[in-house]
Amino acid sequence: MPMRTKDDTKQDALFEATVKLVNEIGFAASSVSKIAKEAGISPATIYIYYKNKEDLLVSTYVEIKKNIGRAIQEDFDDTQPVRNILKHVWFRMFEYISQHPDYFQYTEQFANSPYQALVDKKEIEKFFDPVIHVLNRGIEQKIIKNVDFHILTAFVFYPILAISNARVCLDFELTDQSIETSFTMAWDAIRL
Amino acid sequence: MPMRTKDDTKQDALFEATVKLVNEIGFAASSVSKIAKEAGISPATIYIYYKNKEDLLVSTYVEIKKNIGRAIQEDFDDTQPVRNILKHVWFRMFEYISQHPDYFQYTEQFANSPYQALVDKKEIEKFFDPVIHVLNRGIEQKIIKNVDFHILTAFVFYPILAISNARVCLDFELTDQSIETSFTMAWDAIRL
Amino acid sequence: MPMRTKDDTKQDALFEATVKLVNEIGFAASSVSKIAKEAGISPATIYIYYKNKEDLLVSTYVEIKKNIGRAIQEDFDDTQPVRNILKHVWFRMFEYISQHPDYFQYTEQFANSPYQALVDKKEIEKFFDPVIHVLNRGIEQKIIKNVDFHILTAFVFYPILAISNARVCLDFELTDQSIETSFTMAWDAIRL
Amino acid sequence: MPMRTKDDTKQDALFEATVKLVNEIGFAASSVSKIAKEAGISPATIYIYYKNKEDLLVSTYVEIKKNIGRAIQEDFDDTQPVRNILKHVWFRMFEYISQHPDYFQYTEQFANSPYQALVDKKEIEKFFDPVIHVLNRGIEQKIIKNVDFHILTAFVFYPILAISNARVCLDFELTDQSIETSFTMAWDAIRL
DNA sequence: GATGAATGAGTGTTCATTCAT
DNA sequence: CATGAATGAACACTCATTCAT
Question: How confident is the model at residue A6 (pLDDT cuts 50, 70, 90)?
Fold first, then answer.
């Protein structure tokens, strides 16, 4: 949590530099000084905006998660049927990852690092509350299988990550048709 | 030309120490000397068994993947219907992850680290050939949706990881019933 | 943009420590940490002033060579006859080596180490240009034998090193008379 | 001083490997294991033939010096006039260095390393006794300047090293004529 | 005699962080 | 607010040497 002060451009540069470097050379190799150099500032300056390296990395993660949460809730229409809403959210998420593969990749690396333990899970879940709400509604309406929330997301959203990962890492190409099919598969998995 | 012989227990200890430490403190923090200390040997000794740190980590990963591949092919019966085989494999994998959460978690961390790029993907895929074969058979028999292999696995196997991850990281409990349901969901996702 | 300024005394101490240690324990044994300890600074600090160990050693060499070049050109009088100039230079060099046996010994060790290959030979030769000029003048005036510059210096200056080396290493004593004779020998070697 | 045992070929290989490696990568970088690998034997085997690394390097040096001493005394004819003998020796030495630039370069590196202090100077000088004898005869016969032996060799033999070094390191070419002249210069330097 | 395994001590270098300016 | 200088601690790795076989 940065203590917002004068120079927002520095903080933005820092955010971008962190994501870029972690994607390029990995978590372990992304040192404070390298990030600082990438952002065009002094290593010491980082400690004005963030408590320490951990804080920088965690804050960057939370920031991206917030962005994703915001993105999938754009044009969110609670009056629609459950399937429509989920499809909307699903495509929004897919789109976000496609447009920001670097942000997405950062979260993937982060989520499998020990830093993950330092994140306030409640704060993250907050960003995704509306989606949880819709899933619960689907269960109540006997449209969706009555299983734990974790299992549902494992079939709805986790595959997006897997597919995106394959796309990013293995240069695997996706047609519009197969994206459409993918959502159908997600829906088939959870619907009653 | 006689000589002192290589000590198999040392290499085993090294394997276990690597997995344990990476799980406990993460990839980045797992230094060669810490791994050596955990294994009860000198850091220098590691370089007798492995070319360098990278080789140690990659070899450990490949070893686990090989184990998983072996595990899911136990009692593999190609004469069975596609669904039965997949269910068998699915449960085998679930069981393996449940019994070796540390091995599994290591692969998860590894797969999202920059080391991942160093693995010979073909070698890994080899271990999972029979499964790929069954999926293809399902497609030919018009039992399974005709989409890319990456997408199919994203819905069949990736959710296992997500669910297991939740179990490991969030102490989320699973009933036999919900495991059963989970496979049904995987199958519903991919079946025609 | 204020900052802490670089400490000139540190770099001087580093220079002296490098020379001293290389003379005492040799090139191979002079590790970065030993040099740092001798200079009274942290090993890490060296990397603020020099790119790496190689840079430290090469820079130290070039610095000494520059000093020698400067020393032998003091009171250099181009209007004098060739022999007088050479005698002046010869004695200046002899004096420098006598007064700075450690600097001189450093260059001797360096010149026979693999680091030698990393030095910009042109840059070094620049420091000795006037001397080369005088030798050429002597050749033109038919006072000095018309042979390659390398051979001339091999007889004029290289013996100084040999004699000085003997003095430093073997505690061999030199009288003023024998120094005088030594120059005569150098001159006899090259004069026509 | 190796304790000559069964396998002389191993010791020869060791000698050649040591010289080769020191020339290629320098003194500091020439580790025992690298030398062993170059010689095609185990590092441990070196300790059968030599007390330690130092012993290996020093013995190799002494061996080469002995060879040089032997070489310059070939066809040595004590009945000849002083100048003829010196010329003979001078050319023999020049020839040896030309034919064994690697051996020569090893001695140059060694003589400027701290190992040099470990050599029994008397033992080396022994190999060159006849030459010293001739120089003394020249002084007695008032043919050669009456100065210390170190100064005489500094002008007779040291320039050979300087010229050879230039040849080896700087690809500087020598004609037969200039070799002839070089000896004349050496002689001019020391003759009365 | 000869080996590869094994290691404590050390290598050059980078780290996250602090501090005087 | 922002900096480059400074560092103790750690890094991955190699060293010379010993030892059981």
Answer: low
Q: What is the CATH number of the domain that holds A185?
A: 1.10.357.10
B86 inside domain = yes
Structural tokens at position C175: 């009288």
* H/E element, D122: helix D121-127
Closest-CA residue to A138 (of A92, A84, A69, A180): A84
- Count structural domains, chain A: 1
Which pLDDT belongs to residue A90?
93
pLDDT tens digits, residue range B106-150? Answer: 998 898 888 888 999 899 989 999 999 999 999 999 999 999 988
The answer to whether some atom of strand E lies closer than 7 Å to the beta carbon of A100 is no
- What tens digit of pLDDT does each residue of B29-63 get? 999 999 999 999 999 999 999 999 999 999 999 99
Mean pLDDT of D25-36: 93
d(CA D163, CA D174): 9
Given a cut of 80, whether residue C3 has pLDDT beyond it is no
How is residue B92 written in tokens? 């085998």
Taking the C1' atom of F16, which residue's CA lies nearest?
A: D32
Domain of C92, in residue numbers:
78-190
DSSP notation for chain C = ---PPP-HHHHHHHHHHHHHHHHHH-TTT--HHHHHHHHTS-HHHHHHHSSSHHHHHHHHHHHHHHHHHHHHTTT--TTS-HHHHHHHHHHHHHHHHHH-HHHHHHHHHHHTSGGGGGS-HHHHHHHTHHHHHHHHHHHHTTSB----HHHHHHHHTHHHHHHHHHHHHH-----HHHHHHHHHHHHHHHB-
Does at least one atom of strand E sit less than 7 Å from the CB of B7? yes
Residue C147 included in any domain: yes
Per residue, what are the HEC states of chain A?
CCCCCCCHHHHHHHHHHHHHHHHHHCCCCCCHHHHHHHHCCCHHHHHHHCCCHHHHHHHHHHHHHHHHHHHHCCCCCCCCCHHHHHHHHHHHHHHHHHHCHHHHHHHHHHHCCHHHHHCCHHHHHHHCHHHHHHHHHHHHCCCECCCCHHHHHHHHCHHHHHHHHHHHHHCCCCCHHHHHHHHHHHHHHHEC
**Spatial separation of the C-alpha atoms in residues B148 and C21, rounded to whole Å:** 66
The CA angle C173-C177-C179, to the nearest 5 degrees, is 65
Q: Chain D closest CA to C144's CA: distance in Å? A: 11
What the block records as the tokens of A11 is 């903080």
Chain B residues lying within 8 Å of A26, measured CB to CB: 113-115
Residue C148, burial from CB neighbour count under 10 angstroms (0-12, 13-18, 19+)? middle
| Nucleic chain E contacts, protein chain D, residues 37-96, CB cut-off 7 A | 41-45, 47-48
pLDDT in tens, B2-12: 456 677 788 99
* Identity of the residue numbered C153: T
Residue B106 lies in a domain: yes
Q: How far apart are CA A57 and CA A19, in angstroms?
A: 9
Per CB-CB distance under 8 Å, the chain D contacts of C170 are 121, 150
Nearest-CB residue to B26 (from A108, A113, A148): A113
The set of strand E positions with any atom below 7 Å of a protein CB reads 1-21
The answer to whether the C-beta of D7 is closer than 7 A to strand E is yes
Looking at the domain assignment, is residue A128 inside a domain?
yes
